[in-house]
Design goal:
- The protein has one domain: Multidrug-efflux Transporter Regulator, Chain: A, Domain 2 (Orthogonal Bundle).
- Helix content is 62%, strand content 11%.
- It contains four helices and three strands; from the N terminus they run H-E-H-H-E-E-H.
- The protein has a three-stranded antiparallel β-sheet with strand order 1-3-2.
- A hairpin with a 2-residue loop joins strand 2 and strand 3.
- Helix 1 crosses helix 4 and helix 2 crosses helix 3.
- The protein is elongated.
Length: 91
């Protein structure tokens, strides 16, 4: 079984966040869609697609959409590991 674009995207995003989360207190809290896209080095549309695919979960406060970086790191890492295990099982 070959890795799909989604598999590769999840792995890359998890790696980028793992590196960025060690970057300091500014990467410890809540960010906007645009802020998360900047950290992940992807487009805002990709962030929206990840939310729609339930790969990451936003926090909604009075109509505002925010992402808590530690949660996003955990969700993306779990999704990437799960997909990699699935790929290994298919070989």
């Amino acid at each position: 079984m070959n890795a799909t674009k989604t598999d590769v995207r999840l792995a890359r995003c998890a790696d980028r966040l793992a590196v960025a989360s060690g970057g300091g207190p500014e990467l410890q809290g809540f960010v906007t869609r645009r802020g998360l896209a900047s950290v992940l080095k992807v487009s805002v549309r990709t962030v929206d697609e990840m939310v729609a695919a339930k790969e990451i979960t936003p926090v909604r406060v009075r109509g505002l959409v925010r992402f808590y970086l530690p949660d996003v790191v955990r969700e993306l890492t779990a999704a990437a590991v799960g997909r990699l295990e699935k790929l290994k099982g298919g070989l």
